[in-house]
Amino acid sequence: MTDTDPFHLHPELRSVIKPAAESFFRDFDLSVLDARAAEDGDPIDWRTSDEEREAGRREWLKDSWDQDLWIFGYGSLMWDPSVEFDEVRHAHCHGYQRSFCLWVEGGRGSKEEPGLMLAIDEGGNCEGLAFRVQADKLDHETFVLFRREMIISAYRPTWLNLDTKDGPIEALGFVANHDYEGIIPDIPMHDQAKMISRAEGFLGTNFDYLSNTHDHLKLLEIEDTYVSELYAAVDNLRDTSI
User: Fold this and answer.
1) What residue numbers bound the domain in which 135 lies?
2) Residue 158: Cβ within 10 Å count
């Protein structure tokens, strides 16, 4: 195994991380989501416009085009990054923690039973995976990444200082944007559990999303007390409702 192998530091991750070519997010068409939003009666400007998103991406990366880029994954990006990367490391992020604080009425929820999606928010710390993208791949890979993460303005691109066993790195991460009305950071745990236990949308149930996160954290040997406690609370609610 050589340094040119993306998994040379963590060969055990090869069987866990989905290849980019197999990812739904690699080539997905936003017009499909636009059609779904129209069916649900959402306004035509429900998402960030392609022009606005692209302008934001280029502004964010204006000083980084000639450099390799690290990307921090803390949710589904860990096992389904959808980008071609050249190295992966376990990484610790200080100052941010996982939080199901993004209120959604589509995808994994509905207007009748809203769901909650994952972000990282200020406070605490979390462990995830960092992916390095080579400079010569940066334009296309960040196009794929921003199309996925910046469909709406719920996340804020941020430079994060990460610790890895092979030294500190600076990485791009997507953190909760408190200027977005759907970010609600103070929902009590019990209410989070109730929402997640009930919510379902065209992408599936909210519980499946939480369960997938919980199971992959275990598979990656990443401990997150908050996610474990929330999963247990939702699982208990589902058991008592049967």
Assistant:
1) 11-241
2) 16
Q: Is 105 a catalytic residue?
A: no
Which residue of the set 87, 127, 141, 149 is catalytic?
149
Helices 189-198 and 206-219, packing angle to 10 deg: 110
pLDDT by position in tens, the chain (length 242) = 557 899 999 999 999 999 999 999 999 888 888 888 888 777 888 899 999 999 999 999 998 899 999 999 999 999 999 999 999 999 999 999 999 999 999 889 999 999 999 999 999 999 999 999 999 999 999 999 999 999 999 999 999 999 999 999 999 999 999 999 999 999 999 999 999 999 999 889 999 999 999 999 999 999 999 999 999 999 999 877 65
Is the pTM value of this prediction over 0.85?
yes
Structure tokens at 59: 């502004």
CATH label of the domain that carries residue 88: 3.10.490.10
Is position 1 within any domain?
A: no
Size of the chain in residues? 242
